[in-house]
Description:
The structure holds 2 protein chains of 2 kinds. Chain A is mainly β. Chain A contains 1 helix and 27 strands. The longest helix of chain A has 16 residues. The relative contact order of chain A is 0.14. The N terminus of chain B is likely disordered. Chain B contains 9 helices and no strands. Chain B is mostly helical. Chains A and B meet through helix 1 of A and helix 2, helix 4, helix 5, helix 8 and helix 9 of B.
Amino acid sequence: MCFRSKHSLVATLAAVGLLSAAAAPAQQQTGSSPDLAPPGAATKPPAAPPSWQQGRGAEHEKSTLHPFAPHLTGRPSSELPLDKLKVPAGFKVEVWAEGVPEARSLTLGDKGTVFAANRNLSNVYAIVDRNGKREVKTILKGLSAPNGVLFDKGTLYVAERGRITRYDGIEDKLDNPPQPKVVIDNLDPYKQAGHFWKYLAMGPDGKLYFNIGSPQNITMPTYMQAAILRVDPKTGRLEDYAHGVRNTVGMAFHPVSKQLWFTEHGRDWLGDDMPSDELNVATKQGQHFGFPYCHQGDTLDPEYGKNRSCDQFTPPVAKLGAHVAPLGIRFYTGKMFPAEYKNSLFLARHGSWNRNTKQGYDVIRVVIDAKGKVVKTEPFLQGFLTDDKADPPMWGRPVDVLVMRDGALLVSDDYNGIIYRVSYRK
Amino acid sequence: MQAIPQIRQAAAILVAALPFFAAHAASAADAAAAKQKAAACAACHGPEGNSTNPAIPSIAGQPKQFIVTQLFMFREGNRKDPQMSPMAAPLSNADMNELAGYFSAQKHAPAAKPLPADRIAVGRVVTEKYNCTQCHGPQLLGQQHIPRLAGQQPQYLKTQLRGFKASTRFDMDGQMTSAAQVLTEQDIELLGDYLSSLDAPGK
């Protein structure tokens, strides 16, 4: 589950009353008096908690669990314990680019440019290979949570919090990017905090698929929230595609079935092992994936699940572990890795914070059979998690994966601003 | 004959220790370089980063990640200030990490005089009810990218709170903007005075 910036500006009126009352006696500055505790402070409800605590029950009131913030400057790879990284036999992992602050979603240009996006920062970067050395250019600045990037037929699409824009012919203009054209605007009518950074995927129908997440940890979403939508970039026509999706920040279409696979973050504060985060498949338009009523396909929410049944909703095709925060996914369509990797799904797990013993912080391989069924998941890139009880427990956090033309796999790490490359040699 | 293995062992230890001495010397040189760079900051933020100006924040003893984050935000133009923006503009990421490392390691000096006991009691209730302690920590000493509030300069704290409330102060994740919405001007005065007094001598 993700961190930062989910908040409604819930100003509790009771709290306003409390603080005004609290400050009033203090104004007098008359020295000690035994009765100067704020009137009624003990009985009035506290102010709205920080957004990441929304939905936290009394049993977790003393919890010290908290999200982790990235190092926004990035960190030099020379300071990182790269020797801890582990990949299967025959594979090799190395630093491909560094100095890409808060590197999040990745997309690949026709001419080999890798574009990387930001969530807390406001930039889009282009990384170009110059004779084996990577040059990082900041091509777009000042955007609003531009987490979604997608390159298609010469155009870079960028999904910001409230709009999707296109930059045509960008690869020829990296030093002088064109002004954006708006594909769709007004995707953020409420301006409140929430899971509103986006991921972009291009459908086989030529439409852009993207998410609008839930406004908080666990509350009732509006019609445009906790949803996957799609927009036709030619016409700007917008459609709902799926509902009941708390927050997906990873989508990809299966190379054979052409169905939409996506990761989903489950809610927080139901304990260390509940609920599991999900890998889902949308087989058609209009499916409901359960949020906020049913979690992990089989467990009703203690509050919103009353009077519901999980069989009303589409269950996940795989449970990925509680709080592991699954993000970017890509099907392996390259030729470098062994043949059995063909059409396997690589999936980045950003790692848990809402769990006493941390887990995730890795890239896993999801093995899928010819009928599209998940056979198993297995570790692929590990070693970022160094002490599952420490604070912080990790030195790096995978966000997105990208299959390169040569078949190597890139992995972005927003904690350090680094992109790794995993390759294979027989 | 028994002496030889011992000598060999001693030599081995010495050789093994050499990189340590080299690293130690390098880190001492790095620390001296960091202190020299930090002199420019001390002009406003005070010696070792302990400000004596109520409007300028102390940066001594702040979490390293907090200092780096703010310098980065000033350089990138997300957070703007007539004094700080030009100071941050020429800094490289490495400079920021170095400066932050230096100031986070300095001892924090108290900012303000202790308050009367009744104001302390009110302040304590308010910081808990308003969830300050949820992110800034039970002692309000900060963590990761979240600043230490205990003993910070009062006027600086109040200016930030007013900025968050007005949505004019840059806020990476919206948490403070949201938290400040319920604050009245009286609340802001109380919070600034209380927080700045937290590590006052004789408290």
